[in-house]
Specification:
This protein is an alpha/beta fold. It contains seven helices and 15 strands. Helix content is 32%, strand content 32%.
Length: 237
Amino acid sequence: MYAYCLAVCEDDQVVREEICRFCHEVLDENEISHQITAFSSAEELEEAMETRAQSFHLLILDIKMKGKSGMELAMELRNRDEETSILFITGYDEYIEQGYEVQAVQFLVKPLIWEKLRTALLKDWRRKHLPKTLILQKGRQSLQLPIDKILYAETDGRHGVRIFLEDGEERFSASLTEMENAASGQMVRCHNSYLVNVQHARRIDRQTFILDDGQRLPISRKYLVQCQEKLVSLVNR
C-alpha cells in the first residue's frame, strides 16, 4: 500500500515528539497510510536522504538548529529537488521571505497552533499525493478512471459493478470491495449494493446520501455512522 512519508527535523526532543505524535494522530484519523521518521539535526536528515537514499514526501523542518539550519538544508535540496514538500516550524518570523524562495507549503511560528499544522498536513497530502486515478484489474482486463469523475458505483447482480460517471457509465467484473480498496478511502460504502464518491457528496438526509447533482442513494443502518464520519473527515480536509 502507498505510504505518505514524512521527516520531522527538530532539535528539541519534546517538540519533536509532540509533532510526530500529532501527525500520527491526524493521519490515522483520516485513514492515510504513512511513515514518520524523526531527526534531531539537519545533518542527520541530509545523511538519510543522500547516503541511505531515503526519500520523503514532506519535510517538517525547524529553521534554527545547532549546526546546519533547516533553511540551509531546504535551499540545498531545492537545487536538485522540486517535488519534495517543505513545511517550516520556527520561533522566528524573519525567515518567512526565505521560506517563499524554497516554495514552502507552510510557515508555522512557535508556539504551534496545532490546527494549522493539521490543515497544512492534509492539504499537502490531498494536493500532491491523493490518488487521482482508480485502477481496477481482473486477470488480463483493466480499467482506469479519473476518480473525480466517478459519482457512485453499484453491484450489477452478475459479480460485477456499474460505475456511474459525470458523463457516462462503465461496467467491470469486480466487486464493490475491490473497488473500495482501489479508491484509497475516497469512496465510502453506504449500502451493500452502493459505493459513493465522497467528493460528490452534498449531505446526508436521514438515511439518504444526496450527491451534488441531486441524485439520492440509500444508506443502510449498518453504514450510517461510517458515512457520517467520512463526510466530517472530508470537511476537515
